[in-house]
Amino acid sequence: MAIDFTPSEEQRLLVESARRFLEQEIYPHEAEVDRAGEVPEDLGRRIRERAIALGLYAANMPDSVGGGGLDPVGLALLDRELGKAGWALRGYVGRPSAILMACADEQRERYLRACVRGERHECFALTEPGAGSDVMAITTRAVRDGTDYVLNGTKHFISGVGVPDFAIVFAVTGMEETPKGPRKRISAFLVDRGTAGFEMRRGPRCVSYRAYNNFELSFADCRVAAGQMLGGEGRGFDLANEWLADTRLLVATTCCGRAERVLDMAVDWAATRRQFGRTIGRFQGVGFKLADMATELRAADMLTLNAAWKLGQGTLTAADAAMAKLYASEMLGRVTDHAVQIFGGMGLMEEAPIERFWRDARVERIWDGTSEIQRHIIARELLRPRES
Ligand SMILES: Cc1cc2nc3c(=O)[nH]c(=O)nc-3n(C[C@H](O)[C@H](O)[C@H](O)COP(=O)(O)OP(=O)(O)OC[C@H]3O[C@@H](n4cnc5c(N)ncnc54)[C@H](O)[C@@H]3O)c2cc1C
Questions:
Q1: Residues 222-238: tens digit of each pLDDT
Q2: Which of 42, 97, 141, 258 makes the best surface tag, with the fewest CB within 10 Å?
Q3: For ligand 1, is residue 362 a contact (CB within 6 Å)?
Q4: For residue 182, what is the enclosing H or E element?
């Protein structure tokens, strides 16, 4: 089947609108916010209000719940454009966790719809100090007690815009027998900030997306009603897996957007900076770098859009999403590193934005599953059909 990724008129207008929005509302504040390591409250509020007014907010959510209702390719094109901005400010252009679609009827208004309207904000709390790549190693427990569950445990590296209003918390609720042996039953809970026994503290400062907050969450005999469970007992891990493709494509599109911005700056610099009587882009050592950057970006774009297209067709595999995330994030690492080299000493100075892109790029190979974990997923899909 022929695949044509030429944007429709509607997609083109949306991307254009996002571009103008970034130029007016976000780019002018990026350097200062990164230097300060904080987003002023009124700036965050203004970005959110403008994003809502322009129809950019919650674009990933279906229109049945008030979201943008974009198809996966349309969403990928928008996410790619918005991805040109760093998460500290872009985070205010809400993109609620799609896992909230699993909300039961009585949870929808307070958690799902409030997030889609931009009134409340969630964080996604899976990772723990002892459980990163190995998510099944989580030890946060939720024990049934009458009509409640009692949570105990610690989460870390949990991203949030401003201070999240509630957390989607993954906890062990029991054990089950499987053909491969005993396995933890993991369930997800919606836990409001302010619930007794739930504490949220700022975590260590990350050098990537410096003003994007990360939190440590602790639960000490934290009691939540059984009705706060998301998606049914023991369904937490399956739920997280169901939406994983969405987050991996989000990383991939973000990396493509950021690489385009860096490439553009590097081309400008190489075409104007003079040494030995000519512009440095004329030296093969520099020009070939630019050529590789552009080629790799094109390849990452095609891989990512193809994965988004397959998602829309219902044929996306875990390996397709993993390949897009792996290649695009590794590509961004190489592109930002080449850009620093092309800028020379200026590439490492805070006065030029290149070092920020280089720092920011580093986390893309780590969060939402490291590059090594993506390779495991791809290798597993290759090997499994032929293994006895
Ligand atoms: C800024 C930031 C924000 C984050 N936000 C969130 C969030 O909002 N919510 C959330 O739940 N989590 C979040 N995370 C956590 C993130 O998903 C984890 O950091 C990531 O999954 C890796 O886990 P880890 O850091 O514990 O590394 P580890 O799992 O300890 O891995 C360390 C190294 O060992 C390698 N490794 C591990 N296992 C294998 C293996 N089987 N084969 C080969 N290599 C292996 C890894 O690839 C890595 O290189 C965030 C992390 C960061 C840095």
A1: 999 999 999 999 999 89
A2: 42
A3: no
A4: strand 181-192
